[in-house]
């Protein structure tokens, strides 16, 4: 096969041949064009920008285009859409431009790069100048709360107990209503006392950041049984000494419930005309919270497991137990307050913690014709010995607690100051921050001390020896308070707390005998009262004990 090229006609000008004998292009419109013209286009997303940018250049090219072949003729092949292409817009939910915050004049002057001086520099000097300019332009990482911080997503917390579909919702009370409740109650009276008080070691009052003292690990057995298993409360209930029974840890949470942020729940049991305010074993009442009321509390899903709410709560409880034992002089002269510890069987390998249990009665009646007494189990930790042996004044009985610092730079610290450098010089600011970040915890401790009739409270400031190690701590200071003075600083009134207790008691008293649960909503400022089955919260051992009692009867 032989390949032959087709015959090509040459034309010196643009367009069809001048000598068109075949009539192929007759009656076909033709428009001369130049290389600057656009014949067709599908879609130009940058048309608006190009129009703006080309306005100036068109002014310069307009005189030149008049001399270009075909530039002044109307095009017959240009594609014309029914709608203006300028109306095309890209739909997108995200803003294309970043929002910037206006800076003050003083800060702007700092962030603006300085104008380089017209001097000859070598390559190294130029690189140094560029690095300095970039450092000046970088924004500051440490700043105060900004205008956009309110827009942070709310944290979703899980409830302390899962609400079952068969539970009946009896009542729902929000925190503003709780704050309006009020019931004036007289001073409590002692009913029973158990244990011995040991003296407080006064040398700890002289500790400061310059002569800090390591926190010792002392294993001691400390009992905190629930209301339903307390043998003393069982005996007092059988003797019909009161109509309502509780422990100080349960009662303090209920009386300060309007300050709660973390979820909790307590069990309420009605037997005849008696009501028992109880807790679940292993629930939130057995541990102390950390920075619960901070504006930015510790996060549940923190990558650093050291500073999650659960880890910090366990650490705070551990620190409290060891500090209370360390500052109590176990070699000092004890003061018997009553009978021996009612919960100690002598089988525990660790020594018994030195403290006192007091069962105190409060009258919740509204008028003289009503009988409504409350018996609560309270605790005292030590007594402060008199410096003068012949001092006739009674020795103050105290409660001992510990505030712990984990890392003032970590997330969830609540803007706390560095205790190692600020506690001695700015103790007021440190205490004010703790009152703000731990309002609920300190309120509960103050209520517990008032219910126990304590004369004084001793707070120890405990800090980690290393912020990355939660097992070693040091004592950097001690602060003393009178319980009522601390309650006044926290704006706590016992009348409001007893009003809350009386309201819950009245709600349960109007219901049939059975078991109920009071739950603090995990994400809202509301408490709810539910009716639950009789076997709620019972273990297999409890069921066997009940069956044994039934067979014995």
From TrEMBL:
Ranges where the record places region Disordered:
1-26, 100-155, 326-350
Q: Where is the composition biased (Basic and acidic residues)?
A: 146-155
Q: Where in the cell is it found?
A: Cytoplasm
Per the record, the GO terms for biological process are:
cap-dependent translational initiation; formation of cytoplasmic translation initiation complex
Keyword set, alphabetical order: Cytoplasm, Initiation factor, Protein biosynthesis, RNA-binding
The biased composition feature labelled Low complexity covers 105-138
What InterPro entries does its record include? eIF3d (IPR007783)
**Quick one: where is this thing mainly located?**
cytoplasm
Print the domain comment field: The RNA gate region regulates mRNA cap recognition to prevent promiscuous mRNA-binding before assembly of eif3d into the full eukaryotic translation initiation factor 3 (eIF-3) complex.
| PANTHER family attached to this UniProt entry | EUKARYOTIC TRANSLATION INITIATION FACTOR 3 SUBUNIT 7 (PTHR12399), EUKARYOTIC TRANSLATION INITIATION FACTOR 3 SUBUNIT D (PTHR12399:SF0)
Please state which protein family the record places this protein in: Belongs to the eIF-3 subunit D family.
Identification of the protein by name: Eukaryotic translation initiation factor 3 subunit D
**Source organism of this protein record:** Wallemia ichthyophaga
């Amino acid at each position: 096969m032989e390949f032959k090229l087709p015959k090509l006609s040459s034309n010196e000008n643009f367009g069809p041949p001048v000598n068109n004998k075949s009539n192929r292009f007759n009656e076909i419109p033709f428009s001369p064009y130049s290389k600057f013209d656009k014949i067709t286009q599908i879609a130009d997303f940058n048309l608006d920008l190009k129009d703006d940018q080309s306005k100036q250049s068109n002014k310069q090219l307009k005189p030149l285009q008049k001399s270009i072949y075909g530039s002044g003729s109307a095009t017959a092949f240009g594609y014309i859409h029914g709608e203006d292409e300028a109306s095309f817009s890209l739909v997108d939910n995200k803003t294309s431009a970043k929002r910037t915050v206006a800076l003050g004049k003083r800060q702007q002057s700092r962030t603006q790069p300085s104008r380089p001086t017209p001097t000859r520099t070598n390559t190294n000097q130029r690189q140094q100048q560029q690095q300095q300019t970039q450092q000046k332009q970088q924004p500051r990482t440490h700043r105060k709360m900004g205008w956009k911080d309110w827009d942070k997503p709310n944290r979703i917390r899980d409830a302390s107990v899962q609400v079952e579909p068969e539970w009946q919702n009896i009542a729902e009370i929000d925190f503003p209503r709780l704050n309006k409740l009020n019931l004036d109650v007289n001073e409590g009276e002692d009913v029973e006392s158990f244990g011995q008080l040991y003296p407080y070691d006064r040398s700890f009052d002289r500790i400061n950041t310059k002569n800090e003292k390591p926190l010792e690990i002392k294993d001691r057995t400390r009992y905190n049984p629930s209301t339903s298993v307390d043998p003393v409360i069982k005996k007092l209930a059988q003797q019909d000494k009161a109509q309502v029974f509780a422990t100080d840890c349960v009662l303090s949470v209920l009386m300060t419930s309007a300050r709660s942020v973390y979820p909790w729940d307590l069990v309420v049991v009605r037997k005849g005309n008696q009501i028992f305010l109880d807790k679940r074993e292993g629930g939130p009442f057995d541990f102390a919270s950390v920075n619960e009321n901070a504006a930015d509390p510790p996060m549940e899903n923190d990558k650093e497991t050291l500073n999650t709410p659960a880890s910090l709560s366990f650490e705070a409880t551990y620190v409290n137990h060891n500090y209370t034992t360390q500052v109590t002089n176990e070699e000092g002269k004890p003061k018997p307050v009553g009978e021996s510890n009612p919960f100690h069987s002598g089988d525990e390998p660790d020594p018994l913690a030195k403290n006192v249990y007091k069962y105190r009665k409060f009258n919740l009646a509204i008028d003289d014709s009503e009988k409504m007494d409350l018996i609560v189990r309270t605790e005292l930790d030590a007594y402060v010995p008199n410096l003068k042996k012949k001092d006739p004044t009674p020795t103050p009985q105290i409660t001992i607690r510990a505030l712990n610092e984990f890392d003032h730079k970590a997330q969830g610290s609540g803007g706390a100051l560095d205790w190692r450098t600020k506690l001695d010089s700015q103790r007021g600011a440190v205490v004010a921050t703790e009152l703000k970040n731990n309002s609920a915890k300190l309120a509960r401790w103050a209520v517990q001390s008032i219910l126990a009739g304590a004369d004084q409270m001793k707070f120890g400031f405990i800090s980690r020896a290393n912020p990355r190690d939660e097992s070693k701590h040091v004592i950097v200071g001690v602060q003393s308070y009178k319980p009522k003075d601390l309650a006044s600083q926290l704006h706590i009134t016992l009348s409001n707390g007893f009003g809350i207790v009386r309201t819950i008691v009245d709600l349960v008293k109007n219901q049939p005998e059975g078991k109920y649960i009071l739950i603090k909503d995990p994400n809202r400022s509301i408490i709810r009262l539910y009716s639950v089955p009789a076997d709620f919260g019972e273990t297999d051992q409890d069921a066997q004990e009940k069956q044994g009692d039934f067979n014995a009867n």
